[in-house]
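Handout, page 2. Input:
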Amino acid sequence: MITQKVALKEVRFYSPIGFYEEEQMLGNEFFINLDVVFPFENSDAEDLKNTINYEELYQILVDVMRPKRKLLESALEDIIDLVLKKYTFAEHVNVSIRKVNPPFGGDIANSEVSLFYNRS
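Output:
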């Protein structure tokens, strides 16, 4: 069986996500990587209905990253849930969010949280 992957890489957001109230007020810079793997249907490789529209994936990210929240894990879970709801044929979904310069006193550090869904 042939599988296909549609991915969005290093999608940048400035969002009100963070554990501390100041982070939710000021916002933080985030980069998201999203991979969706599914069976390849070669019946008509030029028909968008036979693949995943990455514009729709981007809109899922926009909708999830807009509201205030404390933890990246909740955003990651919402992204996976929405992808699986829209694309029921997805076999694997990997998503990570990298936070630029988190407020823990380090000098220009990044933190990253990831979740992985595997249909098995």
